[in-house]
Every structure is written in C-alpha cells, then in structure tokens.
Amino acid sequence: MNKQSNSLKAAKIPSGRLSRFSAFGGLATRLAGNVIKEGVKQYSQGQSPKLQQLILTPTNISHVADKLAQLRGAAMKVGQMLSMDAGELLPPELSEVLAKLRSEANFMPHKQLIGVLKNQWGDNWLDVFGQFELRPFAAASIGQVHLAYLATGEKLAVKIQYPGIKDSIDSDIDNVATLLKMSGLVPDNVKLDLLLLQAKQQLHHEADYLHEAALLNQYQEWVKQYPHFVVPKVYPQLSNDSILSMEFIEGVPIESVVSLDQTSRNKIASQLLQLFLAELFTFKLVQTDPNFGNFQYQNDTNKIVLLDFGATRAVPEYLSNGYRRLMLGAMTSDYELITSAAADIGFFQDNITPEQQQLIVEIFHQACEPLRCDGEYDFAQSQLAKRVTDAAKAMSTKQDQWHTPPMDAIFIHRKLAGIYLLAAKIKAKVNVRALFSVHQSVASGRKE
C-alpha cells in the first residue's frame, strides 16, 4: 500500500461499469489515433515501422499508465500478477507502465469520498467520530486508508473501497487483457489467461473487507503465541464488505530498523522468517504481500506490526508438505528429493526437457542457500536475491525454457523473496537452518 506522498493526487474513480468501460474505450481510441499519427509521420520520413513500435511510443505508454492508475483495482492486480510471473521476461515498455502504477496512486476527491461514506454509513456517519481526516494517508489498488478518531478518543485506520471496484472486477480485467493483447507487450509463452483468472479470484477476495476482517481476527489469535507481533483489532460495528475500520497502531517503517544494533536487526529478521515458516507449515495460510509498507516496528515495545491481510492465501496440505520436502532436500543438497518435491508442487507439468528441469532444481537449491549455512547467514553480504534473480533471468530469456509455475507457488516465492530482501536491507544475519529445524522437529513429532 502506497503511503501518502506528493505523488498521491485526487482523481475521481469511475464507479459504474459503463463509465469504466468508456474509460477503456476512450483509451483505445486515443491509442489508435496516436498510432495513425505516428505512422504517418514515420512513413513520410521514409521509415517502415512495425505496429508494435507505433503502439509503444512514450506518449502512448504514458496514456496507458495514467488511465490504468485512474481505474485502479483490476489494472493494478494484473500488473502485479504479470510482475510476479514473468519478471525479467517482460519488455522494458511494460515494466515501465507497471513501475509507474506501483509508485503512483489516485485517491477519491472529497465530494466522491463523502458520497461513499453516506452511502455506506448513512447521512449522520460523522456522529460517531471526533475527527475524520478526509485526505488518506495511504492508497492502494482497491481502496484508500484514512486516519480517524472516535468520539471516545480511540484512534482508527479506516480503509474505504473505491466505488464500483467490486462489481467491475471481471469486466475490468477482461478490458485490461484486451489492451495488453492489442499492444503485443506480453510474451506468447506467458500464460496470460491463467494469470487473468487468478487475478480475478484474488481481487474478489481482496474486495471483500469482511473476509479480511475475519483474517485479521484469525491472525490476532495466532500471534498470541508470538508476543513480538501486533495485529490491529477490527471495529466490526464500523466495518462491512466495503469499509474496514481497524485500530491504528503506532510504528515506524520497518526499514528504519537498519539503525538499530546488529542483535536487534537479527532478531527482527528471524521473527519474520519464523512467522513465514509458521504460516507455510503450521497455519497453512500465508499473507503473500511482502511490501515493506505492510510491516512496521515499535521502538518502545520492540514489536513488529503486521498490516494488510487482503492478499492472504490458503496453503493446501500437499503444497505445505511439498515445500517441507523441498527445503529438506535443499538443506542436505539431496537433488532427487528437491526434484521429487518440486514435481509434487506442480513445477513440471509442462513438457519440459531434463535440462530445463535441472535448471529449475538448481535455482531452488540456490534459493535455499541459507538452509545450508551452519550458523548465522549474512543476507546483506550474500547478495542472494540478486543471484537468484539473475539465474531466473538467464532461464527466462530462453523462451523455450520458460513456463508458468503454479500460482500458489508464485505467491509463496514472492513472500519469501520479500523477506530475503528486507533481511538484506536491514543487514541482518539469521540462523535459518535452526528456524526450519524447529518446524521439521514438530512435523516429525506429529508423525510419531
């Protein structure tokens, strides 16, 4: 979720299906006009440009990014899914659009916001509040977050969904898909239809704020056994499927802990990795968005604040077991076990050659390098995230070697990669092997 900055600007979010469809239609018309204009210009200069070159002009890229930023929701989710799956396989032009979408966010103008609040809470919605900040302090793909104080003095974070998002998810994603296919920006070997189906399912989940409220309550119960974590409590009387009112918990950006001593930094990274392993192997429910903004730190209590559970996904039993076996194989460099576990997870469903399979297994082995360190693993010095990315990039540039991994696996990898990056950013050293061994011991105890 993007924190408030100068890049945030007020812009009315199209709320009806017709207005949202018109926005896409208007964009397509504008792109077509620019293509004709640019084509005439280049032909008059004796050039013979390809259609894709005419589409991918800086002007058109800017128009696409601006329009998708205005529509939010589906556009953001498709961009996220493409970034996760295709990574370095994407053309720089599309990467530029996605980067712009991630860094910029429109929020609702006051008039539209008030209309939403009256529609959800009634004309006297303000009566329960002592103060309600009309400018949001954060904005994301499907909603924006406001600071508020109840008349009783309690401080709240109120997440308000953009109007029309919930009812237009499927049509929005179909329209985004049409634009992407027209542009030729997505490589043929990326399974776009599968990604779009997953994007629809994920966005429908994220648009149900009652579902997120239930997850918040669930995590609150779970982390009672981990007193170093804090999860905001939900105010059910001020929440529904489009508004989520939560306790506002004070904290500083998680990246700021880099100024703490080494022991504290190690402890923070260890606790986040410990939580990830518990999610994967015990809770079987993973909050898959590793955005640094979803974690904060309380210097006075030494606790980590966990935020934003919209992208939480259930982990099937077979997947949890598969990753346990894969990590065990990687820890002992048992390539047969890694290969068998990866097959059970679903990585080799495509018709890939033994050489391609071996490349994937090698990347897994490398990504689990911290498990083979007998002691503290230095994330900052290892440059592990970069090495794994480079290896994946080398494979993805050979299009016959690229295939779309199982979607659940993509989300799990995304979360783990985010924790690796954070551990490197705060210069932490973690005994990952010891953390995993605890979960392995628990699993062995259950079997006995």
Quickly list its features.
single chain; 448 residues; six-stranded antiparallel beta sheet; 12% strand
Q: What is the overall pLDDT average?
A: 79
Q: Total number of helical segments?
A: 17
Principal-axes shape call: globular
Q: What separation lies between the terminal Cα atoms?
A: 44 Å
Number of strands: 16
Rounded to the nearest angstrom, the radius of gyration is 23 Å
The chain-level structural class is: alpha+beta
How much strand content do the residues show? 5-15%
Describe the structure.
With 448 residues, the protein is an alpha+beta fold. Helix content is 54%, strand content 12%. β12 and β13 form a beta hairpin. α7 runs antiparallel to α8 and α10 packs antiparallel against α16. The protein is globular, with a radius of gyration of 23 Å. The relative contact order is 0.10.
